[in-house]
Design goal:
It is a single chain. The chain is mainly α.
């Protein structure tokens, strides 16, 4: 069974964090912008798709607002 060693755990965590390659500020801003932009495109797509489906439902069945 593994021994409980909080100090050893903290040391291992610090070693792992030191190995991480952190993104630069520019990379973070670019990827954040891409996420926001693509989210807006997806929202627009689903808004248009919803509008089209509602239009078809109104035309075919006379239901919907």
């Amino acid at each position: 069974m593994a021994k409980l060693d909080p100090a050893g755990f903290v040391r291992e965590v610090r070693q792992e964090v030191a190995r991480v390659t952190w993104p630069s500020r520019k990379e973070t801003l670019v990827t954040t912008g891409l996420v926001l932009g693509l989210s807006a495109v997806a929202a627009l797509f689903f808004m248009v798709a919803d509008w089209a489906i509602a239009l078809v439902m109104r035309l075919l069945f006379g239901v919907g607002v």
